[in-house]
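Field reference: "sequence" (input) and "structure" (output). Example, ABC transporter permease subunit:
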Amino acid sequence: MQILTISTIFAGNNLFRLLNGLVVTIEISLISIILGTILGVILGSLWSAAGTLIKPIFKAYLEIFRVVPTIPLLFLFYYIFPRNLNINLSAMQVSILVFSLWFAAELSDIVRGAIQSISKSQRENAYSIGLTTLQTYRYVLIPQSVPNILPAFINLSSRIIKTTSILLLISVTDVITVGQQIIEANAQDTAVPLLIYGFIALLYFLINYLLSHFSRRLERKYRKYE
């Protein structure tokens, strides 16, 4: 019985479907992280330099994505906004949009804090040698902030990858959705859910372990230059 249950993964094209679903998960996560990083760094830099009147706008954006759960946000962007705004977005596009905005919101606060923790003398020295504000952020403040940002950045990236498991709610064919389909097709075997979800958990573990290993290498690299 156990051998028959284990063979479910390799039956037909189940393994290929699971790996293809994993590719979808990685693709959504990777694109969201890249877009969220670009937007988060820009917003965090602007936030650190913003005046008193503009800061509440950044705080409002952060709090919306920090307080509101991801599932309602997905439903809003997938079901409500497209219907009211007459915009047609695929489930994958909505997923990337929501996760990118969420990632950017969280990262912007981290970037802001890291930049503001740098000594004011660094900024003054940059201005004294003729650097513009943009050059000061690009060549002085942001590079010095990276070691402080990196651990939180990896944690956020890991959260994005794990949170993709809820995308079955808007019919994204990710690894969780494929796993659920295989379980439903083998409903007569009560051991199949444990096998499939255990296999999926292993895939998530491997992805996040590699991400954690990569982050440790980056941290060691930056320590050499401190």
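Residues 2-224 form a domain with the MetI-like fold fold (CATH 1.10.3720.10).
The chain has a mean pLDDT of 86.
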